[in-house]
Amino acid sequence: MKLLIPAQENSMLFRHITVALDSSPHSLASLTAAAELARLMQADLTGVFVEDINLFRMAELPCSHEIRIYNSEPEKIDTAQLERSVKLLAREAESSLQRIAGEFNVECSFRICRGVVSTEVIASALEGDLLVLGRSGRSPSCRKGLGSTARKALAEGKKPILLMRPGFSADKGDLLVLFDGSEGANLALSTAVALTRAGNTLHLLLLAESYEESLKMERELSHKEALSNAAVEFHHLPINNGKKLVSYIRMAASGLLILSDRMKITRESVHDLVQEIDYPVLLV
């Protein structure tokens, strides 16, 4: 599919993508998105599987037991069986990585480490240009909102982060950019332009103090050469706090939301928005 910007500009964005794997539906969605982006960006892909050290520590406690569905009596956790189960999950994650990377014809590598999951994932991301992970993890308590690893990466991460969920394709989905004219917003916009492909619609969500200022932004953006070949729709949103902004964005469109936490609205408001809206989000 034809790119809408010069290939040399596109290839400079992300050269190495790291994806966190745990075999959950959100993780598999992240892997597919990461492979799609790696192909688009001509980037390498690394899958990281973390053996949760807290799980093993808990299993070693004398008070730790498990109840199986076929046995109502609690049983002591078998640490050897736990080791085998975790290794099996790692093999499944590596197999998924190789299969999906092969489908998208991208180079990939796989790494296993043991430690606190969120800490190890964030540390692994420092070696790449983009961290991709699911909005939620395997825990049933994380089915809504952000999982603990995603929250920690959002708060402490020093690299761009893509928080994925099932149901979105980088090939077919529309792109939304939160834009207020700031340096961070311009970075988000240039990233979105690099990701825009034929058939995508680029929704520019303009934040301004007044409607007149928002119209001025639209006129200036309409003359940008980088946007001349893209299908662009402008949406005028009033500056507000992150939670109220969610409703305006949902009314505008759905798709991959691209934004920065270095905008005129506060960093806390941006993070509130990321946590509240149930869209895949790319924070640059």
Written overview of the protein:
By secondary structure, this protein is α/β, with parallel strands linked by helices. 42% of the residues lie in helices and 25% in strands. It has helices at 7-10, 25-41, 53-60, 79-104, 117-125, 148-156, 183-195, 211-222, 242-252, 267-276, and strands at residues 16-21, 44-52, 65-68, 71-76, 108-115, 130-134, 161-164, 175-179, 201-208, 231-238, 256-259, 281-283. Strands 5-2-1-6-7-12-11-8-9-10 form a 10-stranded mixed sheet, sandwiched between helices. Helix 2 (25-41) runs parallel beside helix 4 (79-104), helix 5 (117-125) packs across helix 6 (148-156) and helix 9 crosses helix 10 (267-276). It is elongated.
Please provide a brief summary of the model.
The protein has two domains: 10-62 and 73-164, Rossmann fold (3-Layer(aba) Sandwich), CATH 3.40.50.620; 175-283, HUPs (Rossmann fold, 3-Layer(aba) Sandwich), CATH 3.40.50.620. The chain is 42% helix and 25% strand.
Task: Give a topology summary.
Elements lengths: L6 H4 L5 E6 L3 H17 L2 E9 H8 L4 E4 L2 E6 L2 H26 L3 E8 L1 H9 L4 E5 L13 H9 L4 E4 L10 E5 L3 H13 L5 E8 L2 H12 L8 E8 L3 H11 L3 E4 L7 H10 L4 E3 L1
Parallel strand pairs: 1-2, 1-6, 2-5, 6-7, 8-9, 8-11, 9-10, 11-12
Antiparallel strand pairs: 3-4, 7-12
Largest sheet: 10 strands, mixed
Which runs of at least 5 residues are low in confidence (pLDDT < 50)? 1-12
Number of helical segments? Answer: 10
CATH superfamily of the largest domain: HUPs
Shape: elongated
**Whole-number tally of structural domains:** 2
The strands making up the biggest β-sheet line up spatially as: 5-2-1-6-7-12-11-8-9-10
Determine the mean pLDDT. Answer: 83
CATH architecture of the largest domain: 3-Layer(aba) Sandwich
* Number of DSSP E strands: 12
In terms of DSSP E residues, the strand content is 15-25%
State the CATH class of the largest domain.
Alpha Beta
Structural class: alpha/beta
Distance between the termini: 25 Å
CATH fold group of the largest domain: Rossmann fold
Order of helix and strand elements from N to C terminus: HEHEHEEHEHEHEEHEHEHEHE
Helix content: 40-55%
Overall radius of gyration:
21 Å
